[in-house]
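Fold this complex.
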Amino acid sequence: MLVVMKAHATEEQVRAVCERIQRLGYRAHAIPGAQRTAIGITGNKGAMEAGTLEEMSGVQEVIVVSKPYKLVSRDVKEEDTVIRFPDTDAGFGGRQLSIIAGPCSIESREQAFTIAERVAKAGARFFRGGAYKPRTSPYAFQGLGEEALKIMAEIRDRFGLRIVTEAIDNESLELVAKYADVIQIGARNMQNFSLLKKAGRTRKPVLLKRGMSATLEEFLMAAEYIVSEGNYQVVLCERGVRTFADHTRNTLDLSIVPAVQKASHLPIIVDPSHGTGKRDKVLPLSRAAVAVGADGLIVEVHHDPDRALSDGMQSLLPDQFDELMAEVRQIAPVVHRNVPEPLAQAALAKAVK
Ligand code: PEP
Ligand code: MN
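Structure:
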């Protein structure tokens, strides 16, 4: 259920409604909008009597949200969610595209710094790198763990890049939340409900990847788990789904971008690296993702992909990433977006010292 406040409702009136909802044993989520505040009501006790709230001062109407996802839906918040990072122009949503780039896994300090310098020079604002890797084989490289997180924290200081990295379980989540700027929840964990709830109790933005066979509704319900715990900073990510097609690793479902944008106010970015699994498909699908209206890209880049410990086949060389940035920079204005310019050379030079 959703309480829609009048346009001129006061803060006290909003607070009084929230308190009443809580006294009734539910959770209240006040969501300020450009025109008015809406208060989402969650709790699993079944239907609630609207009457008591309808009478309260400042309340315009009480409506039932028919979709199973509530807080992530456009019915509850009409405007796009925009996530900002203090002291930078980095963010998710809004006019500027969010460009995340870096290796699949952090393998060494030298590897991570070499790649970070190149992606920063190309204009990326976020650096990705796995510290904890969900691998199909228990014998494959599992990530450097906390050591990798420390390397990425240094990269943030040196290059001014915000750090995006995956948490695979409750234990790694605590460490990732401590060191990183954005907590990634991977495709394999999209329906790990206890992990989603725990991410919802942190106050760091969460990048939620679509499960390999998740429907739009399942995807949004996973986001709802995070938001219902009070963390409203969720970014969705399309990374390809399993189909019969075998010319790519996964089938990148770009049509989910406008579908998500219609149903939800959350930003959605695209991962053309896992979405195709093949280096030569990453550039064309990046162009398409920007053209379809995605809020950003997450791209794997490696300076020596033949020797990468994971996902070398789909990693771009730094020069290819430069080309990608140059091309999407031209496409972005057609969809009223822009691609960030490289951070001021002076700032980078100073940082690299
Ligand atoms: C990754 O980003 O390296 C990753 C493992 O992604 P996904 O969860 O989409 O497979
Ligand atoms: Mn990967």
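The mean pLDDT is 95.
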